[in-house]
Write a structure and sequence with these properties.
Elements lengths: L9 H22 L3 E6 L6 H11 L6 E7 L4 H7 L5 E5 L8 H11 L6 E5 L16 E7 L6 H4 L1 H5 L3 E5 L4 H4 L3 H11 L4 E4 L8 H23 L1
Parallel strand pairs: 1-4, 1-5, 2-3, 2-4, 5-6, 6-7
Length: 230
């Protein structure tokens, strides 16, 4: 009798399970009328700083919650908790990204009652997080001016899957001699359909455009909810 063997493609198996959970999470959030955002960037690009500014400026405008992913510590969750919004820290250990099950557990912890926006602050990494759907409505990729103009070309997957690319720390771009037109051109090469915003969480430059983008998507989520209810 000839020997037989079976080939199991682990990547497909893992991503298949992940995508099924992500679809369930997306359905749950859509039916609750919540706009959910997966924030992706390299470490230090300013995800937590952007959330701090947003939570502080918009506390009276939207009901918000945050799920934070990090390999270790709850430092970011502590920073964000001072704004009085629900925050859950997911410690991923050796895993370099959030997956849909981790995110779903975090969402269960923060709850979805009466929320307008759910922010998911992914682990700082420009490789692994791009492959994992978390059930979010939109992906936002952050690119700091300190990282170099060619970063979108080196790590195209994160930018290609983003609805919005936010160039952060623009208040120091001139000091660093950053070629902003080149950075924007490289973003467009990697993410031709993504909207581009330029922001400074420290000075507030560009933040009204960020809030306008959030508001447009919150209103869209509410319209979808009304269609579901009908």
């Amino acid at each position: 009798m000839s020997a037989t063997h079976k080939v199991v493609v682990m990547g497909d198996t893992i991503l298949g399970r992940n995508d099924r959970q992500a679809s369930e999470t997306r359905r749950k959030l859509t039916e609750a009328g919540i706009f959910s955002i997966n924030l992706l960037s390299s470490p230090g690009a300013g995800k937590t700083a952007l959330l701090e500014r947003t939570l502080g400026d918009c506390a009276d405008k939207w009901a918000m919650a945050v799920v934070v992913g990090d390999l270790q510590t709850d430092n970011d969750a502590v920073r964000l908790s001072r704004f009085g919004v629900p925050v859950v820290q997911v410690v991923t250990g050796e895993v370099c990204h959030l997956d849909a099950q981790m995110t779903a557990t975090g969402i269960d912890e923060v709850g979805t009652d009466d929320l307008d926006i759910l922010f998911i602050e992914n682990v700082g990494n420009l490789v692994c997080p791009a492959a994992f759907d978390l059930g979010e409505a939109s992906r936002v990729a952050l690119l700091s001016v300190t990282e170099g103009e060619d970063k979108p070309l080196k790590y195209p997957s994160v930018f290609a899957t983003a609805s919005l690319v936010a160039i952060t720390k623009v208040d120091i771009a001139n000091t660093l001699g950053v070629d902003m037109p080149l950075m924007r051109d490289n973003i467009r090469k990697a993410a031709p359909r993504a909207e581009i915003l330029e922001l400074s969480s420290r000075t507030g430059e560009g933040m009204p455009n960020w809030y306008a983008w959030l508001n447009t998507n919150v209103q869209h989520a509410l319209r979808n909810l009304q269609l579901i209810v009908r």
